[in-house]
Amino acid sequence: MIRTLPDLLIEPIVRMALAEDLGRAGDVTAMACIPVGARMRADFVARKPGVVAGLACVRLAVLAMDPKATITLKLWDGGAFEAGAVLAEVEADARAFLSAERTALNLLGRLCGIATLTSRYVAAVAGTRARIADTRKTTPGLRALEKHAVLCGGGVNHRFGLDDAILIKDNHVVVCGGVVPAVQAARASVGHLMKVEIEVDGLDQLDQLLPLIDQGVGPDVIMLDNFDLPMLREAVARAAGRVTLEASGGVNLQTVRGIAEMGVDVISVGALTHSAPSLDIGLDARIAS
After folding, report:
1. Is 169 part of the annotated catalytic residue set?
2. 195 has catalytic annotation
3. Which of 15, 113, 117, 199 could cross-link to 279 by cystine, CB 3.0-4.6 Å?
4. Residue 246: which H helix or E strand, with range?
């Protein structure tokens, strides 16, 4: 079971999505067609198998529109389900629920899709040392939810933003004049709790960093960017366990196993968040008795 995010972090995102949908006049269809005081029940039902993430968004969306609604969540974040599984049951004021349903379904389908895709990558590298990590290639405004969904699928989070770890990319290296001065500048400017990672695009750059690592002033992580399999194998051999190695670039469900078998520690996959299809989740509604 994965511990869900605090409501404090989720609720502003849900309310923003509801406000976007309600617009200037509210749900004119529900107000025109649904009698005042009518109540309804509904089940959120998975049309395909997957891994759950985002049920808190359903709860908060419904309660934002009807604080007296009853919501029963049938699974915990990170739980697997089959097609036809009921993920949540709701009884609420009909007007209020119909105004919340699309926001709830959009967020739930999006996050379950990320968790489900992540679980497939994790399964593909089972038995290797490699862990599957996300990236910052997230939907603006939804990063906290999408990175939580990666955790639900069994992956791990890379840095959350620009402020929680140093990641020296190729353009930083160009401006700094090389990988060694870039790492030296980074080490000189931060405290002992700040991790330093640097991207390299060839074995020659890796070799330049190994003496710094032996001296205890090198990077904590080296990202091997777009290395082919022989280069990955050689990089692992040269590093010999002295530094965490992350493979990045050219990763998909067909290639990830081969990359993992080269012995890297982490494989970062942007597709987990930028290309995950939303999971098909439907709503089976009925009048409350």
Report:
1. yes
2. no
3. 113
4. strand 244-248
What is the C-alpha to C-alpha distance for residues 8 and 136, in angstroms, rounded to an integer?
A: 22
Residue 213 to residues 42, 193, 196, 281: CA-CA distances in angstroms? 58, 17, 12, 49
Clarify whether 280 is annotated catalytic.
no
For residue 82, which amino acid is it? E
36-66 pLDDT, tens digit per residue, is 999 999 999 999 999 999 999 999 999 999 9
pLDDT in tens, 107-148: 999 999 999 999 999 999 999 999 999 999 999 999 999 999
Task: Indicate which residue of 47, 169, 238, 242 is catalytic.
Answer: 169
State phi, psi for 200 to the nearest 5 degrees: -125, 150
Active-site pick, 102, 131, 159, 257:
102
| Fold classification of 7-122+276-287 (topology level) | Aldehyde Oxidoreductase; domain 3 (3.90.1170)
Domain range summary for the chain, segments of one domain joined by +: 7-122+276-287, 128-274
The first and second tokens of residue 202, run together, are: 């060839």
The CATH class of the 128-274 domain is alpha beta
102 annotated active-site: yes
